Amino acid sequence: MGTIDPTARVEDGAVIGEGTSIGPYCIVGPNVVIGAHCKLIAHVNVTGHTTIADGCMIYPFAALGGPPQDLSYRGEPTRLEVGEGCTIREGVTMNIGTKKGGGLTRVGARGYFMNNSHVGHDCVVGNDVIFATSATLGGHCEIGDFVYIGGLSAVHQFTRIGRQVMVGGVCGVRGDIIPFGLANGQYASLEGLNIIGMKRRKFTRERLAKVRAFYQKLFHGPGIFAERLNDVQPLAGEDPAIAEILAFIGDGKLRPLCLPAGDGNRN
């Protein structure tokens, strides 16, 4: 059975799941649904049309479901959804969506959001991500599964970060990062592949060799990037990761592609 501290304020209409505890001085709005076996430790504010799935741990001064930081927002009943098993540390903020952005901010399961990290309006965040301290997403970003974003790094609005990417600390991410990429630098550039992450996801030595060879041909081969991209298209059949990277590049529309510094930036 869950508990609600007498100093907490849970508005009429809120739905609280079995076994969920709401600690001192928390505020839960009337359109909030909190799943089973969650824990709001203290001083947590959950508002808006927000749904939090089972088993989430939310630390003091997190603010979830606040209005989007978008001047066009006019109070529409847009939503925030947070997946099961997330850990949301102190001071984290996640905003609801905007009507023009589809009306939904969605955060996947089992994410770990360190203190003061931020998920902007209309973002779609995958499963098993880690946002280090003060990692920040602008609006409309798309973040794949198993992404790690380093401390104090900021991602420009409408940017896509593919699956299993690692972004270093104190990076300004202004372009789409390919799946399995490793990005670093004050203005993030592609430094290679996230080999450690790929090994953790059970890539064999043979697969790693194929994807590495593809990466070298695409980003460090002779000629301009557009020519190299055309030349490597037949390699999509060699490995699912190569096909995923090529599909990701092909789907890009709103932001430039994050490329290696130096020769890799020649278009």
UniProtKB/TrEMBL annotation:
GO CC list: membrane
Gene Ontology MF annotations: acyl-[acyl-carrier-protein]-UDP-N-acetylglucosamine O-acyltransferase activity
EC category name: transferase
Annotated EC: 2.3.1.129
One GO term of the biological process aspect: lipid A biosynthetic process
Keywords: Acyltransferase, Lipid A biosynthesis, Lipid biosynthesis, Lipid metabolism, Transferase
Annotated signal sequence range: none
Pfam families the UniProt entry points to: Acetyltransf_11, Hexapep
InterPro entries: Acetyltransf_C, Acetyltransf_C_sf, Hexapep, Lipid_A_LpxA, Trimer_LpxA-like_sf
Domain of life: Bacteria
Domain UDP N-acetylglucosamine O-acyltransferase C-terminal, residue spans: 176-253
Cross-referenced PANTHER family: ACYL-[ACYL-CARRIER-PROTEIN]--UDP-N-ACETYLGLUCOSAMINE O-ACYLTRANSFERASE, ACYL-[ACYL-CARRIER-PROTEIN]--UDP-N-ACETYLGLUCOSAMINE O-ACYLTRANSFERASE, MITOCHONDRIAL-RELATED
Designated name of the protein: Acyl-ACP--UDP-N-acetylglucosamine O-acyltransferase
